[in-house]
Amino acid sequence: MDIRRVKQIISSTADIEVKYNGTSVWIDQLNEDGRTATVHLRGPLEERTIVEVAELVEE
């Protein structure tokens, strides 16, 4: 995924499905380095992880 699309998804009110390694995640923020984002799993667990933006896939 590219940085422009990550910014659009973060600012959108729509429920846009994004996956990281085949698992649905919410994008919390684009990090200052511009290459990584903080995400958490959809569902009751809210453990946050920093991932490469290039590894995110929009479904």
Please compute the radius of gyration using only Cα atoms. 10 Å
Strand content: 35-45%
Number of helices: 1
> What structural class results from the helix and strand content?
alpha+beta
- The H/E string reads HEEEEE
**Biggest sheet record:** 5 strands, antiparallel
Overall form? globular
Low-confidence segments, given as residue ranges, are none
Tell me the span between the first and last alpha carbons.
Answer: 11 Å
- Percent of residues in helices comes to 10-25%
Spatial sequence of strands, sheet with the most strands: 4-3-2-1-5
Number of domains: 1
By DSSP, the count of extended strands is 5
Output mean pLDDT: 93
Describe the structure.
The chain has one helix spanning 3-11; strands at residues 18-20, 23-30, 36-41, 48-52, 56-58. It is α+β, with helices and mostly antiparallel strands and 59 residues long. The protein has a five-stranded antiparallel β-sheet with strand order 4-3-2-1-5. Strand 2 (23-30) and strand 3 form a beta hairpin. The mean pLDDT is 93.
Keywords:
single chain, 59 residues, alpha+beta, five-stranded antiparallel β-sheet, 1 helix, 15% helix, globular, Small, acid-soluble spore protein H, sporulation, SASP_SspH
Please outline what is shown here.
It is found in: Spore core. This protein is α+β, with helices and mostly antiparallel strands and 59 residues long. The chain is built from 1 helix and 5 strands; from the N terminus they run αβββββ.
